[in-house]
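Thread amino acids onto this structure.
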């Protein structure tokens, strides 16, 4: 269970497994820009999920992950005003073993966040009075 609550202004906070995640809106959207916007956290979840798979791949093979970086960008469908393509570029250091280049791409492709998006889960939203 994740509990969401409001702290004032545009700040919306989530308690997740003992961690507090604050969000805010940019100034131009009425917030104070004191924390990432919720959509920014969504985007970050894609790249960091791929990153943990890349890191685990390297750890299992004893390959240093220092110097590996993932650059994430996206294209937007201007009609729908929604992302249409997420791009993840895994930047590898010069000494990264060439024989593992394709395998590290495959590892990033295992990301659970990406798989969840592909699965197109449904949402059920209700309201109760407590």
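Threaded sequence (130 positions):
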């Amino acid at each position: 269970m994740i509990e969401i609550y409001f702290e004032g202004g545009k700040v919306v906070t989530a308690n997740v497994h003992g961690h507090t995640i604050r969000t805010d809106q940019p100034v131009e959207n009425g917030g104070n820009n004191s924390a990432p916007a919720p959509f920014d956290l969504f985007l970050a979840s894609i790249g960091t999920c791929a990153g943990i798979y890349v890191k685990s791949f390297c750890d299992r093979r004893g390959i240093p992950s220092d110097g590996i970086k993932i650059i994430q960008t996206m294209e937007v469908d201007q009609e729908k005003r929604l992302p249409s393509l997420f791009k993840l570029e895994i930047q590898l250091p010069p000494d990264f073993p060439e024989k593992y280049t394709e395998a590290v791409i495959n590892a990033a492709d295992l990301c659970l966040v990406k798989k969840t998006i592909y699965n197109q889960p449904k949402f059920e939203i209700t309201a109760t009075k407590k």
